[in-house]
Amino acid sequence: MGRIIGFTNQKGGVGKTTSAVNLAVSLAVSEAKTLLIDMDPQANATTGLSELTHPSSFTIYDALIRGHNLDEAISETQFENFHVVASTHDLVGAEVELVGVMAREYQLEKILEKARHTYDYILIDCPPSLGLLTINTLTAADSLIIPIQCEYYALEGLGQLLNTVRLVQKHLNTDLEIEGVLLTMYDKRLNLSKQVAEEVRDYFGDKLFKTLIHRNVRLGEAPSFGKPALLYDANSVGAQDYIQLAEEIIERGN
Ligand SMILES: Nc1ncnc2c1ncn2[C@@H]1O[C@H](COP(=O)(O)OP(=O)(O)OP(=O)(O)O)[C@@H](O)[C@H]1O
Ligand SMILES: [Mg+2]
Q: Atom 29 in ligand 1: which residue has the minimum CA distance?
């Protein structure tokens, strides 16, 4: 049975999408059958992979709201092991439309029932909010990766996120775990990066991934070419960091 991992942090721009996209591709090239679901109306993961896919006519919105089968929304990519479910701006409406749906927090879990038997990993990229799209992800997921940017105010808002996780564990998904906290945009020349890393290590202990994601220009450039870093510049520090993260996750045997 596959492992469903959500990328969550309601803080914007911390590296959720970059991490979801590049980890997904790294897992796929490590021969794990991987599905990436874009749950963000900004659709950054979708556009960041546009060179790799022939988009399906349907998106996550059609599966969540219009009752389409998830299979209809799955697009193949040039990697045999890597499939994508795209998002569109329509998904903004889903936050509101879900409110009136029975068992509204469980819609994503319901549509993933079959897929979790098909894939080794299902990664879900969340929007920067704690609204219903994120709550659906927390309810469907086995675990969460929380990216934290090595910047001022890195820990701001984490209390609220962890509180939401606890509420979901209590009421919606008792098995939800924190897969790990991931430091992103780490710059070893900056004391600030080291300070943030230390602070996060003190707070999260062994929940912090050993792998650090360095600040790397290639990671920022790759999405504008519609490619993951591994296809844009396989030897870049950024591409290699995500390969290492995939190895760390696979080695845990999850
Ligand atoms: N390690 C990195 N090195 C350099 N640039 C990065 C790195 N990680 C992410 N970026 C860039 O930082 C910006 C924010 O990253 P990203 O889009 O992954 O964050 P996000 O948390 O998904 O944002 P949002 O909350 O808006 O969804 C993007 O322009 C991305 O290309
Ligand atoms: Mg994003």
A: 220
- Whether pTM > 0.90 for this model: the answer is yes
Mean per-residue pLDDT, 206-231: 97
Q: What is the pLDDT of residues 47-81, one digit of tens each?
A: 999 999 988 889 999 999 999 999 999 999 999 99
Q: Which of 8, 11, 14, 17 is the pocket-test mutation for ligand 1 (most atoms within 8 Å of CB)?
A: 17
The domain over range 3-251 is classified in CATH as 3.40.50.300: yes
Asked whether 14 lines ligand 1 (CB < 6 A), one says: yes
73 near 58, Cβ under 8 Å? yes
Provide the residue ranges of all domains of the chain, joining segments of one domain with +.
3-251
- With contact defined as beta carbons under 8 Å apart, do 51 and 45 qualify? no
